[in-house]
Amino acid sequence: MSKQARVIKPKTNEVPREIIDLAAAVHNLPEEHLTKIEPTMTKVLESTKRRHRILLLVQDALSQLRLDMKYLAFDLEATRRERDEYRRKLEGST
Q1: pLDDT average, residue stretch 65-93
Q2: DSSP assignment, residue 28?
Q3: What residues contact residue 37 under an 8 Å CB cut-off, 6+ apart?
Q4: What element of type H or E holds 7?
Q5: Is residue 5 part of a domain?
Q6: 8 to 20, 61, 64: CA distances (angstroms)
Q7: Which of 8, 16, 53, 91 has the greatest number of beta carbons closer than 10 A?
Q8: DSSP 8-state secondary structure symbol assigned to residue 9
Q9: Of 46, 18, 12, 14, nearest in space to 38 by CA
Q10: DSSP H helix total and E strand total for the chain
Q11: CA of 86: how far to CAs of 30, 73, 78, 83, 90, in Å?
Q12: Contact 41/22 with Cβ under 8 angstroms?
């Protein structure tokens, strides 16, 4: 297997620049060192990508939660206004 086939090209938006630079430096090592370090480097890249995806999911969930909270606050205020209006009508009719 040649070095060219092993080069991992992570998406730059998923992996910090430092890890990309580290991966490039690892792939420039001699073959005997590369075979020892490459599996660990691959695990680091995969875990970094996984953490990035998890972070995006959490950010999306928080955004959705904020939006839901705004809708709930609006609904609560509308319900309170309706309650107060019905209360005034009830007190006015007695």
Answers
A1: 96
A2: T
A3: 26, 29
A4: none
A5: no
A6: 9, 30, 34
A7: 8
A8: -
A9: 46
A10: 3, 0
A11: 81, 20, 12, 5, 6
A12: yes
Copy the structure tokens of residue 84: 């107060």
For the ranges 71-75, 83-87, 88-92, which has the lowest average pLDDT?
88-92
Residue 19 CA to residue 45 CA, distance in Å, equals 8
Determine the pLDDT at residue 15. 86
Give me the mean pLDDT over the 52-62 stretch. 96
* pLDDT above 50 for 5: no
Question: Does 3 map to a domain?
Answer: no
Read off the tokens for 56: 């995006």
Residue 81 lies in a domain: yes
Q: What DSSP string runs through 38-81? A: HHHHHHHHHHHHHHHHHHHHHHHHHHHHHHHHHHHHHHHHHHHH
Identify the domain containing residue 81 by its residue range: 10-93
Could you tell me if residue 45 is inside a domain? yes
